[in-house]
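Q: Joint fold for the lines below.
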Amino acid sequence: MNFDIWMRENPLTYVWLGSYAVALLIFVIEIAMVVHKRKITLQQVRLMQDAGEEE
Amino acid sequence: MAINWFKYSAPTTFYGLAGKMIPWFAIPAALLFALGLYIGFVVAPVDAQQGEFYRIIFIHVPASILSMFLYMIMAGYAALGLIFNTRLSSMMATAMAPTGALFAFISLWTGALWGKPMWGAWWVWDARLTSELILLFLYLGFIALHASIDDPRRADRAAALLAIVGSVNVPIIYFSVKWWNTLHQGSTIKFTGTSMHVAMQQAMFTMLAACWLYAIAITLTRVRSIILERERHTKWINELPEVKQ
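A: Joint structure:
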């Protein structure tokens, strides 16, 4: 009940925090995960290459 | 001059091309997001019936459109990989799935946020909402099935079948508001025109373009990692400057 009142008194805050902030956070997390994945994959490939050269 | 359209269908050539294309999609995506938010929150007027709550549509509608389009493109790539055994097609399908799933989640989440003040409920078992939820499960199923099989080629084939069968859900989502008497409203923008204020249209289409560019940029970045991972035993990967560092 209190939430309903707050939501109607602060519609822009509700819209911003509830949808746009969440969506932007999801995008930021996805970007961070993709960048991290690339770093890890590059490291693995380099390690494999180093291991191959030592043999 | 004859153009060899198949040149970039090989991971070897596509890897470099994707790397060059990423900034051309990522930078405009960020600029269009900023512009779309500015128009949506500063320029667009308050809605007569819904008040400020209607502004959720500037992210809800693009996310919903992207979730459906990305699924169809993903299923198309998966089918190409299954039929013609093309490696890059399957890699593209795998790279698209997480972004599509996130857009489906954003669509459901923002829809719930809009539903609470407008309908008085976060969720109703409406045909449009339920079919969109099934789309999210199809994306998650595709990702889970692909991850559960060790051999990537077998994983591609199994996940492709799921993607192709699941594509029947996309027209159901789109036409659900016409076929059934749903609580969810029908399309506001049609080929015959729209009653939306011009600033509202501008905000929505700017955000839609931003979401498209973002989806392309993130898919290209992800597919480069997939190519690196799958082709790591090949000579050309070992000769890449970023690997030699």
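Q: Anything notable?
A: Chain B touches chain A at residues 37, 41, 51-53, 55-56, 59-60, 63, 98-99, 102, 105-106, 109-110, 113-114, 116-117, 214, 218, 221-222, 224-225, 228-229, 232-233, 237-238, 242-243, 245 (CB under 8 Å). The longest helix of chain B spans residues 11-43.
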